[in-house]
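Q&A log
Question type: sequence-to-structure
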Amino acid sequence: MLVGSNGIHAPSDRLTAFADPKIEWSLINFMIDNARENGYEFTLMPLLNNTTNYNTAFGYKTLYANTTGADNTAVGVNALTSNTTASNNSAFGVNSLLLNTTGANNVAVGHSSLFNNTTASNNTAVGYQAAYSNTTGTRNTAIGYRAGYTSQGTNSIAIGIQAGMTSQGTSAIAIGEQAGVINQGTYSIAIGFNAGFNLQGLTSVAIGQYAGRTSQGQQAIAIGVQAGENSQVQNTIAMGYQAGLTTTTTNDNTGIGSSALRDNSTGTSNVAVGRLALAQSTTASQNTAVGQQSLYNNAAGTAFTAVGYQSGYTATSSINNIHIGKLAGYLSTADNNLFMGFESGLQNTTGYENICIGKSTGVGNNINNQQIGDFNIFMGSSSGNANETGTKNVYVGYQSGKNNVNGSKNIYM
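Response status: OK
Response body:
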């Protein structure tokens, strides 16, 4: 049955009906009588080209060109008006599935939803102009105002206002207002307001408000508000608020924690785990920082490993260091040091190639002369903790060499 009008608002409006000749005329007569009783002029016109059953349409020119398509439902002006042989379509809204001819098993709800769909099948579009320009893409879901508007690939999901609006790749998911709005790569996921907004690469994940917003490379993961927002390149992981915020051209970085690797621009192959770990790194590479504010100020250093709260905190361009323990090497800016233990090497500034193992080893006792010399080995709790300028000393045991300040080439066990 097909009933249509340009919209009934007053008794003076004209109601036009199109009826499948195979339906029960008693029902048509009932509708005619009912319409006339309410003051509407009613004109009945048969769809002479229709040769099948089980179609339902309501609205001007709904299913107008249908010939053999069956089990279709069209509600709204011009809904499924071009449909000829396609079956099992549902169109609700003005111009919904307007150009569809042979595409089957589609659902369009909303003004101009799936408007340009012609031969594509198994699509679902809900919202004003949802999947508007899709023509041949199949098995897609677009829900929201202009979701998947310009182009939507195959097996993709776009949910939210303008989600996946301009272009969406195959098997891509965009959920949230303007998620993946300009371009979303194949097998990618963008969830959150503006997540993956501008460009999202192949097999990438952006979850959180503005995550991966400006550009996200292939195999990249950005999870958290503004994680990887300005640019995230290939094979990178940014998890946490503003993690990897400004990375632009480098690959293979991992930042986990609020503001981890926040300022990184061109540094590569870094791992930062913890709030503000490697936060001010810009060009540093091949570093590992685990712990809150570990390697916080390291901007250009390389091959540095720091594990523990504020370990290696002050270093800016040091290389080849290992600092393990809370505050280990906190003030050190030197190279090739091994500090292991709570506060080990705490006040060392420029001393290099030292080994300090144990709680408060080589911590230094003169805050105005913050160094522990070079080529020293201190092992044992508080060993060498008075040393300032002494070099090439070996202290083994609890508080060994505790009185030596500037002596060199000593052995205490």
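Response note: The helical segments are 25-37.
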